[in-house]
Amino acid sequence: MAGDGPAFIASESGKQARPLPESPGGFPKISEFQNQGDRKAMRIGVLTGGGDCPGLNAVIHAVVRKGIIHYGDEFVGFLEGWRGVLDNNTVPLTLEKVDGILIEGGTILRTSRTNVRKIEGGIEKCVEVLKANKLDALIAIGGDDTQSVTNALIEAGVPGVGVPKTIDNDLNGTDVCFGFDTAVMIATEAVDRLHTTAESHNRVIVCEVMGRDAGWIALTAGVAGGAHVVLVPEKPIDLDHVCAILKYNHDHGKKYGIVVVAEGAKLPDSGEQATKGEKVDSFGHARLSGIAEHLAEEIEKKTGYETRSVNLGHTQRGGTPTAYDRMLATRYGLAAIDLVHQGKFGRLVVLHGTKIEDIPLAEAIAKNRTVDDSFLSILTSLEPKL
Fold first, then answer.
1. Catalytic amino acids?
2. In this structure, is the dihedral angle defined by the CA atoms of residues 349, 161, 317 and 229, taken in order, positive or negative?
């Protein structure tokens, strides 16, 4: 479809192609995509960045199927996220390649936490690689870190759109990110199972779930799983209050307790997050782990109840996506390829209510979507009056 010069857009007959005027970044001007209408064949790059989650393959599946079947597009997949762009590590994405991946967890493109903006000349290198691959557009699937790189490339002239992905469900501007529902179902099932073993031994069990800056998984799985205490990053932990709830329940016949805590909740004594080691990733994030273990020790000291901890860790990311996540991811993928053909670059597809819409990418990464007071009130409403 593309020649050796700038990107090309196919003619109505598909037999000829004409070069489009280039933007300062060397890519076709957005206005030219809009002038051409939305059914012209294009050559499009796709990548998945950041942490994996169930539903990534469903997005890829939807993008590629609609792009090829309805628009006649050609797709280039970049392996291992932005690292694959820097290294020009690609794979063709065909109908055969994506056949059957809808139900699979993980990502066939693999992923990495690669912050191009922290690498000297990284943005320029990515632009060079994208141009060398004769791409007309790029679809980046990822959370706020991945989309911060997408936004930087858009500012450098790359025609790109984003798809929101994070099991933490904390990307601003969308009601739900795919992968969240699956993670919550896994965490809820774990909490359900912890009830029986905790009750059998008259123990308190503290269950640590994912959630760096937002406690959506802890809140949802904790409430759905009937946890007696739920702790989130948005609210400081009052350990005396936690123990008081557990003692109240014990005195009223419930001889065990379940506490669900988000990994990013702050330690009550220091106000810091519990971390494993001192290393940080390329986006400056420490590896969070250990708050459940710490709280278990403190609860046992204060109450005298035998207390254990469990960290669900990456089990929340693994396995096949729920039907909800498969459907949401599919809708996001279909909307993303449509945005590309409408020339609506610099946008992120989002869910508002039941409708798929789009917002400026810069707006989505401006802040995290955290648990607000209306949801925190659910927790206080379910607590006993002490």
1. 168
2. negative
